[in-house]
């Protein structure tokens, strides 16, 4: 009996099928894993996009904070500036309120200083500055340092400035005028100071004399002292109130009034005189008169 013969191909086919099956199984498993990984990557990608969105939002937020901060800073700076300006204005007003407005007033035949006016502070002048040491002289205390500087600097230039007369009270003035009236009769009105008198009553004005004219006033315009004053007095805040050929009063080369360095320099440079200016223009210099 012949054993049925199994073809060797059958074994081969069985093994092939088994191998294919296993291969397919492996492929399936691997493919599941790959799709899992892909899914995971997708999730990560979405997370990244989400984070990027958050970062952008934060960046925008911090940008807008920075903008707000800088706007707030500007507002603060503006405010500080306003406060500064207000403080400046208050300072100026305070300084003005403490500055005697009469000090830069123009006086005339119709407008003169009240007879009860006295300067806030007067200082006695050292004898060395006086022509006549027997007559005490006084000056506005805040004008004193300017006057002293001027006299000492003139001395350095070999120019002697003596004070003949400085502060005069209303009483002294009337007495002086009646003396002049006795001596010169009715001409005293043009000679003795209807207007210049107010300036002396302020305590800021000085009549000078010098060597060579016997302590007098006449001839002062021809002295070295007068020339020196014309060139230098403005540096110390003094001006000539009644220059030659002025429209207001007789020429008084000896009579110098303190108006502050700023105004005196302005007048010197512009070659104009105090009484030529408008009062409101002059008043702008009041706040800095003692600077
Ligand atoms: Zn005078």
TrEMBL record:
One of its GO terms (molecular function) is peptidase activity. SUPFAM superfamilies: Hedgehog/DD-peptidase (SSF55166). Keywords: Membrane, Transmembrane, Transmembrane helix. The chain crosses the membrane at residues 9-27. Residues 137-260 form the D-alanyl-D-alanine carboxypeptidase-like core domain. InterPro entries: DD-CPase-like (IPR052179), VanY-like_core_dom (IPR003709), VanY/YodJ_core_dom (IPR058193), Zn_M74/Hedgehog-like (IPR009045). GO terms for biological process: proteolysis. This is D-alanyl-D-alanine carboxypeptidase-like core domain-containing protein.
